[in-house]
Amino acid sequence: MRTDTPNGRQAGNYLVSDAQLLEESSEKPEKSGESADLANKSIIKAAALLYELGNHPQGASVTELARHTGLSRPTAFRLLLSLEQTSFVERLGTKYRLGWKVVHLGRLADPNSGLVNRIGPLLKALANKMHEAIGYGVLYGETALDLITEELPESRLFNFSHGFAYVGRDFPLHASAMGKLVLAELPDSRVKQLLPETLPKLTRFTLTSRRALLAALQQVREQGYAVVDDELEESHYALAVAVRNPAGRMIGTVAVTGPGQRIKQRTENELAEPLLKAAEEIGALLTRDN
């Protein structure tokens, strides 16, 4: 899902991600001052590798990781070896993936564990009502969106290639229902600053023109929900709505997803109505708890 941005850098979402920030920090020349003197470039590069491994749940080779992070292959190999010895990375044949220690630390540091517990029953009830997978994403700042949980209905067996395979991972904002909601909150002038004129093509249905995306975002604003239909993955359909605080600011998103052939047997309004009601309930619940 990576492609060249206008300035020649690589980015999966065309937004400033943690991986890009880490990469940029490791490439900047030394500056005078205490912070520059104290920064350890090897740790910054190792963190970039860990972040990139999060985009490869099935594992990635040294060559792939070096290419995506901008590190030399020998440097990437040396850092991966050290991370493997400390259980932050594990090696399976010629591929590396995140190790058990990352999972352990992630559970200790998870800022959304309480949130998931609070909204989980509501999402589960919605999944059972709609007989489809329901996911919830949290919005951080302007464009950082984290899909933190999903609930599956008890009435279906699911193929996760059509479910929320992006929980805890980055996904392209221009080709996801939740991402389109985030972009629709911004003025067109800001979207133009964030996105290039040509967007990465993930399937034959992906919107690759910024102009076409801006038109789609206007439709999102008017109808109150966002849709992706085969744009992220073939046969993948999702519809998402915004969760807002009392001031009207978007704080999260709730979405239904499933195989397009099945889920499109219902109209968009039939899908959006229960989601919009659930979004109101979640917003009220989070406001009351806070």
Automatic annotation (TrEMBL):
It comes from the Bacteria. Pfam families: HTH_IclR (PF09339), IclR_C (PF01614). InterPro entries: GAF-like_dom_sf, HTH_MetabolicPath_Reg, Tscrpt_reg_IclR_C, Tscrpt_reg_IclR_N, WH-like_DNA-bd_sf, WH_DNA-bd_sf. Residues 40-100 form the HTH iclR-type domain. Residues 101-288 form the IclR-ED domain. The keyword DNA-binding applies. Keywords: DNA-binding, Transcription, Transcription regulation. PROSITE patterns: HTH_ICLR, ICLR_ED. GO terms for biological process: negative regulation of DNA-templated transcription. GO terms for molecular function: DNA binding; DNA-binding transcription factor activity. Transmembrane segments: none annotated. PANTHER family: HELIX-TURN-HELIX TRANSCRIPTIONAL REGULATOR, ICLR FAMILY, HTH-TYPE TRANSCRIPTIONAL REGULATOR RV1719. This is IclR family transcriptional regulator. It comes from Ventosimonas gracilis. The lineage of its organism: Bacteria, Pseudomonadati, Pseudomonadota, Gammaproteobacteria, Pseudomonadales.
